[in-house]
Structure formats: structure tokens, C-alpha cells
From TrEMBL:
<feature type="domain" description="HTH araC/xylS-type">
    <location>
        <begin position="15"/>
        <end position="113"/>
    </location>
</feature>
<keyword id="KW-0804">Transcription</keyword>
<dbReference type="InterPro" id="IPR018062">
    <property type="entry name" value="HTH_AraC-typ_CS"/>
</dbReference>
<dbReference type="InterPro" id="IPR009057">
    <property type="entry name" value="Homeodomain-like_sf"/>
</dbReference>
<keyword id="KW-0805">Transcription regulation</keyword>
<protein>
    <submittedName>
        <fullName>Helix-turn-helix domain-containing protein</fullName>
    </submittedName>
</protein>
<dbReference type="Pfam" id="PF06445">
    <property type="entry name" value="GyrI-like"/>
</dbReference>
<dbReference type="InterPro" id="IPR010499">
    <property type="entry name" value="AraC_E-bd"/>
</dbReference>
<dbReference type="InterPro" id="IPR029442">
    <property type="entry name" value="GyrI-like"/>
</dbReference>
<dbReference type="Pfam" id="PF12833">
    <property type="entry name" value="HTH_18"/>
</dbReference>
<dbReference type="InterPro" id="IPR050908">
    <property type="entry name" value="SmbC-like"/>
</dbReference>
<keyword id="KW-0238">DNA-binding</keyword>
<dbReference type="InterPro" id="IPR018060">
    <property type="entry name" value="HTH_AraC"/>
</dbReference>
<dbReference type="InterPro" id="IPR020449">
    <property type="entry name" value="Tscrpt_reg_AraC-type_HTH"/>
</dbReference>
<dbReference type="GO" id="GO:0043565">
    <property type="term" value="F:sequence-specific DNA binding"/>
</dbReference>
<dbReference type="GO" id="GO:0003700">
    <property type="term" value="F:DNA-binding transcription factor activity"/>
</dbReference>
<dbReference type="InterPro" id="IPR011256">
    <property type="entry name" value="Reg_factor_effector_dom_sf"/>
</dbReference>
Length: 289
């Protein structure tokens, strides 16, 4: 087999395992079962996984579970103890210790004081000073994408598939930027019907062969809010951008897809150091006039 054929085989195995992890994240992970899905012995499977993803399987599972737990803390009224139990922690103490190590504060304090609180209505005046929005003009950009349906919190599964395809086909390039496209409003559309795309920027010379699809990011004016902190906190930033910044800006929304540009990687930095640009398409001043 050629090198490309070997990596294509690994791509399919990794996709099967990644899908299983995302679909069974709130269950105990049976390493033997994952090895069966990968069609490799546990000894070899762990090494292949780490070589491709640059982290161990245990690290992936822990990171994803904490990400989901952070989302529950932000968006639900469930007790911290119940959230800990849901995501596989045997007691509140162990959950608190692991969560604080990753997010910089214990879960109860995170719920009260996390970066999502900066965009709360009572903080509007402070927020307008602290969170500047830059209006910039962006060029048209081609994207290579993997479609995702369901909760936006689960788009990581599509990014896993995307990077697996890029690396196995030897078409990944270091200057590719990571982009998330979100087509629906999660407050209006049922979670299971939400549509999104995990994407990277790409030149016209790179083919989009299944499961990859090609999309075009429209050029033009965008309001860009740079968010620092966990992905789970960004819902409040969106509401602030629409509800506070936009009316005060005097600008109008353009009928194009909103997107997120990810400036670093959750595999490489802790959640509190994640940098994301939330990009809202605007009509040009001339068109608005």
C-alpha cells in the first residue's frame, strides 16, 4: 500500500472512533471497545491516535467532558453535583479539582464569574468599554468544510473529521485558518436541526473530495468581536453583539453567514486562553445610505 492509502485507512478508523466518543461522551469509555472500532490492538491504537491528534485518548475525553460541563454550568440550572455526575466524575471534589485546573476557577465560581458574565445586561456600560468591536473589510475566501447537524457544542466532531481528512490526504497547509460557519439561530431552531460547518481556509488548487465540501465566505464589511475564554461562554457575547453593540453602531446586518475564526487550538491552550473572533456581516456604509 502507498503512504496515502495507509493514511486513508487510518482516517476512516479515526472517524469511527471520534464519532463513537462524541456520541457516548457521558458513558464510561471502554478502551477495548474503541480498539475494536479502530480495528487495531489497544497497544497500536493508542499510539496511532496520539500521533494524529497530538494528545492521548484520555486527554481528549477529559477535555470534551469539561467543555460540555462548562456549557451546562452556563446554560442550565442543574446543580454542580449533578453536572459532575453526568460527566463521569465520581464525586464533587474530584470534579472541582479537575475543572479548576482547566478553567482557572472552581465550577460554582465559574458559573457566577466566568467570562460569559461580562456580557450580562447589568454590565452593558462596562462591556462597551472593555470589549471593543472592530469593523473591518475582509476579502472573499474559499473554504474546505465538513457539515455538522445538531448542537453547536458538538461541532468539534466535524473538526475532527475535517483535520483527519486533511492530514490523511496530505493537503493540510500551516497557513490554513480554522473557521466555524453557523447557519441557524439556536434560540429559534430546534437543537437537532441546527446546521453548521467546520472549515479551514484553502486555495482554489486544493480539491474538495467527499466528505469535504467547498464553500465561499463572502467578502465585505464585518463587525469583529474578539472573545477570550471558553467556547461555552460565547452565547452571551453573541447576545451582547446583537442587542447592545449593533443598535448603537448605526450599522445594518448584511444577509450573509456569520462565522467564527479560531485563533488558537483547544488542544494547545487552556480554555481561558482560547481566542475567537465572532464576525457579523454588515452592509457597507454606501449601501446603507
Amino acid at each position: 500500500m502507498s503512504e496515502n492509502e495507509i493514511w486513508a485507512a487510518y482516517e476512516k478508523r479515526l472517524l469511527r472512533v471520534s464519532a463513537y466518543i462524541y456520541e457516548h461522551l457521558d458513558e464510561d469509555m471502554d478502551l477495548d471497545r474503541l480498539s475494536e472500532i479502530a480495528c487495531l490492538s489497544a497497544h497500536h491504537w493508542h499510539r496511532v491516535y496520539r500521533a494524529v491528534h497530538n494528545e492521548t485518548l484520555a486527554t481528549t475525553v477529559r477535555r470534551l467532558r469539561l467543555h460540555r460541563a462548562a456549557g451546562d454550568l452556563v446554560r442550565s440550572e442543574s446543580s454542580v453535583r449533578d453536572i459532575a455526575a453526568r460527566w463521569g466524575y465520581p464525586n464533587l471534589q474530584s470534579f472541582t479539582r479537575v475543572f479548576a485546573a482547566a478553567y482557572g476557577m472552581p465550577p460554582a465560581r465559574y458559573r457566577r464569574e466566568g467570562s460569559h458574565r461580562a456580557y450580562a445586561p447589568e454590565n452593558d456600560k462596562e462591556t462597551s468599554r472593555m470589549f471593543d468591536v472592530a469593523v473591518t473589510t475582509l476579502p472573499e475566501q474559499r473554504l474546505l468544510c465538513i457539515p455538522h447537524s445538531g448542537s453547536y457544542m458538538g461541532i468539534g466532531k466535524a473538526f475532527e473529521a475535517l483535520y483527519g481528512a486533511l492530514f490523511s490526504r496530505n493537503i493540510f497547509q500551516p497557513d490554513m485558518r480554522m473557521i466555524g460557519l453557523f447557519l441557524d439561530d439556536p434560540e429559534l431552531v430546534a437543537e437537532e436541526k441546527l446546521r453548521s460547518f467546520a472549515c479551514v481556509t484553502a486555495g482554489a488548487d486544493i480539491p474538495a473530495e467527499a466528505p469535504l465540501v467547498s464553500r465561499t465566505l463572502a467578502g465585505g464589511d464585518y463587525a469583529v468581536l474578539r472573545h477570550k475564554g471558553p467556547y461555552a461562554n460565547m452565547g452571551a457575547a453573541y447576545r451582547w453583539l446583537y442587542g447592545t453593540w449593533l443598535p448603537a453602531s448605526g450599522r445594518s446586518i448584511r444577509d450573509e453567514v456569520m462565522f467564527e475564526a479560531y485563533l488558537n487550538n483547544p488542544r494547545d491552550v487552556p480554555p481561558n486562553e482560547l481566542l475567537t473572533e465572532i464576525c457579523l456581516p454588515l452592509q457597507s456604509v454606501a449601501a446603507a445610505a
